[in-house]
Fold this sequence. Notes:
Layout: E1 10-14, H1 26-58, H2 63-90, H3 100-119, H4 123-144, H5 147-151, H6 154-179, H7 186-207, E2 215-217, H8 220-225, H9 235-264, H10 270-302, H11 306-324, H12 329-356, H13 364-390, H14 400-418
Antiparallel strand pairs: 1-2
Helix pairs in contact: 1-2, 1-4, 1-6, 1-7, 1-9, 2-4, 2-13, 3-4, 3-7, 6-10, 6-12, 9-10, 9-11, 9-12, 9-13, 9-14, 10-12, 11-12, 11-14, 13-14
Amino acid sequence: MSSTDESNVAVDHVAPSAEAPTKVSGLFLTLFGLMNFGFYFTIMMPALFSLPYKVQLLAPDDKAVTLGLVTAIGAVVSLIAGPMAGVLSDHTRSRWGRRRPWLIGGIAGTLVATVFVALAPNVPLLILSWVLVCVAGAGTGAAITPVVAERVPEPQRGTVGAIVGVATQLAGVFGYTIGGMLTGNLVLLFTVPVVVLAVFALVYTLVYPDSTAPVERTTVGETFRLLLFNPRKHPDFSLVWLGKFLMQTALAFLTTYQLYFLADRLGFTAEEAGQKLALVGGIGILVTMGFAVGSGLISDRIRRRKVFVITASVLTATGLSLMAFTDGFGLFFAAVMFVLGAAGMFGATDVAMASDLVPERDQAGRWMAIYNLAATLPSAIAPLIGSSLLLLGDPAGGNYTALFLTGAIVAIGTGAVTLFIRGVR
């Protein structure tokens, strides 16, 4: 692949063109949804299960703090590498096209790096390997993220956004379902999601040629500046962004530490905890799908978004509050079902609300990239906050009551800010 220097690279933003994207087919929606599922599977399974499991093996005495450090470093690297990869991919020229080299290279690099993670003998090498995973993943994201802006017409972007939201939630559920089955083989534990992505990406790229949509030239610095905006000029979009940020932070408190919770609070071994999470995840898939599809369809029919987002915030807070005082697997199961149902409802309707409130329709790609930052920033912040909460009054790092009650309060914040949105019902 080739790219120019910083002064001549292009931002991940589609320039106005004479030919607007044509309506996409059901096949496109299916294949793009599956590719996004594979992409988020490579993100969610390590976040939910495989990385905490590996950290526990390497640093059992201070696993919560170590996990917070590893994930925070990786998230910061992703936040920097993601926009840069997007800029470089915009101006890549090859016989394979503009995005395909980054898609193929990103997947290949992720596969190799995850093997390094699986085999890392100590924490420093684990951190280095995880940084490589994040850099390679940025390349993959640079190939997948622009597709909506480049290929999908405006009237269908809400639908595609909802599909991506559902795919993300399902990837999370499958993450600890499959993860709990693969604890006996660390290499498979880390590489299976990448293989799944490779299969779906191959099918997509064979069916649909690479995009040749024109892009505006800009610098890397300009790319980062485009991720900033004045909240006073766009209050509704700002509130949607803040609500997303709060919800993802609350969810991250559970997803990051649920494996340790089962071991520390309920007394399961790591392998037993994996099996329990697999059981929860298998049933959770049905719950997530049911809430996502049902709320999405009803939301479109009655043309209301806010009530679903507010309900999802209440359900999340309920689940996390139950989790704070859980003393057995039955109550843990019930709490997770509340959270998974809420995640499905939120994922299907919040992204549609964000699409409705995009301030500049001709820059939908830019604004949805800003919106997506609300999902990625918590991955850098939540583990650090969470590890500090776990240490409150407990030097061993086991104060899960403080962790989950804080998460419940944060989740309620999503509903509170949504009440002030005026641009949608």
